[in-house]
Design a protein that fits this description.
453 residues; 11 helices; 4-stranded mixed sheet; 8-stranded mixed sheet
Length: 453
């Protein structure tokens, strides 16, 4: 159900949240605690039982040791993609020993349910106008390894990887090398092809997440980590050969937008934006990934290069496995930021792409003049393009149809609707442009810096 998107003052959010925090609602569970796998599953099902009409629990696959990767969905029509309603995801606990994101997403799920039931207008609009997917733990096996040691004795790497000790944030197909090649040859700038036999080159958890991305047209996402306090945005991998002791900024075509997304979280967070955290300084609490240190085969770059989704990586705590008594402060520090960032999915432009008979056209390409990164329409013909305020020239094109160009002015509030009706191309113009890319690109192996990401 589509409603007019408005942002209520944060003061109202804070007052309602404070009231819910002091309530004895059963969905809050045992207040703040660390959740082992079975406890996490019970917590998710508890939220579903409290809010059965706006939630759905589904599994996207299993870990190496057979644990389900459960997702909790929030929507006024769970299980259904509604036209012009964007899809959003939060992913936590990719590194098993970085546990704060896992606990924040469990608490955030409880919070959404409680506030919806309490009639919080801001949260109600968010759930009615957005399809929200929350994956609290991408690496449940690694978490169990870390949790057995506990907060007091957890090492920097114990439980980081999955059951095979593979770092899942170095496990996605390397599309950056292909993208940087295409930049030099005027090749494809979006939805890059995967290497041959890629399914056999990734871990089960990574495979499950990629299949998830293929099945849902996600528009915006954040990946929650720990070990620093900063909002990190693409690209993570440097364009330049690695030189010891040197880092280089690797901007995406949407660099200004990514900086805005990162600042949205940082400034809504209680202390991230202050810059000095964990002995490091990041201006405004944000950083370009490659400018920090170069990382190959990461998830946030993969989102941008393979799907319509814009993802950033949120480093949320100095301590990878904070004690339970630190969780209330961390929740209060992140609560508004989690909501504010989610709201960013409603900016830019969105619309339908139709043919002459008002049939939706899937996989139509939406290009914005001056930004070399296109997005595509979903299976229902709807598209979403995140943009900063400004005036843009936008073109929709699809194989077998004549492209159509329109000018649109984007404001700071809800997304502007811009629909396209494409006419069938004359037969002599039916030759569609096809971009061919190398499918077996291999990049030279280099030592991996195991920073927080």
């Amino acid at each position: 159900m589509q409603q007019r998107w408005t942002l209520l003052p944060r003061l109202l959010m804070g007052l309602l949240a404070a009231a819910s925090a002091s309530s004895s609602s059963s969905s809050s569970g045992a207040d703040f605690q660390h959740h082992r796998y079975e406890e996490m599953v019970r917590a998710l099902y508890s939220v579903h039982s409290e809010c059965p009409y706006i939630t759905r629990i589904y599994s996207i696959g299993r870990s190496v040791e057979g644990r389900h990767l459960y997702v909790l969905e929030f929507s006024d029509n769970p299980g259904i993609h509604e036209e012009l309603e964007p899809e959003f995801k939060y992913v936590g606990n990719m590194h098993g020993n970085e546990v704060l994101g896992r606990e924040l997403l469990i608490k955030f799920s409880q919070f959404l349910c409680e506030e919806y039931r309490a009639g919080n207008q801001r949260i109600t609009r968010l759930i009615h106008d957005t399809r929200i997917h929350i994956l609290p733990s991408m690496n449940p096996d690694g978490y169990e390894v870390a949790a057995r040691q506990g907060p007091e004795f957890n090492g920097y790497l114990v439980g980081r990887g999955n059951a095979r000790e593979i770092d899942l944030n170095r496990n996605f197909p390397d599309l950056n090398a292909l993208m940087y090649y295409y930049e030099k040859t005027n090749g494809r700038n979006h939805h890059l092809p995967l290497p041959d036999n890629w399914e056999h080159q990734v871990e089960p958890e990574t495979l499950a997440v990629i299949k998830w991305m293929q099945n849902y047209n996600f528009i915006l996402s954040a990946n929650l980590h720990g070990g620093a306090v900063v909002a990190n945005y693409p690209f993570d991998r440097s364009r330049d050969p690695r030189i010891r002791g040197r880092t280089t900024y690797a901007a995406t075509p949407d660099d200004k937008l990514f900086r805005k997304l990162a600042r949205t979280y940082s400034y809504a967070h209680s202390w991230m934006h202050k810059g000095w955290n964990c002995g490091d300084f990041f201006d405004e609490g944000i950083t370009n990934g490659a400018s920090w240190y170069s990382l190959s085969k990461g998830m946030q770059d993969f989102n941008y290069l393979y799907t319509n989704c814009f993802e950033i990586t949120l480093e949320l705590s100095c301590d990878k496995f904070p004690p339970a008594d630190a969780l209330p402060r961390e929740w209060l520090g992140n609560r508004e930021a989690l909501v504010s960032y989610l709201e960013q999915v409603h900016h830019g432009i969105k619309g339908m792409v139709y043919d002459e008979n008002n049939n939706p056209i899937p996989k139509a390409e939406i290009s914005v003049s001056g930004i070399s990164h296109d997005v595509t329409s979903g299976a229902n013909g709807d598209y979403f393009r995140l943009l900063l305020p400004g005036t843009y020239t936008v073109t929709a094109s699809a194989a077998g149809y004549l492209p159509y160009t329109s000018t649109v002015t984007v404001g700071p509030a809800e997304a502007i609707q811009l629909h396209f009706h494409l006419k069938t191309a004359p037969k002599q113009n039916l030759k569609a442009k096809h971009h061919h890319g190398k499918k077996n690109l291999s990049s030279p192996k280099a030592p991996l810096k195991l920073g927080p990401r």
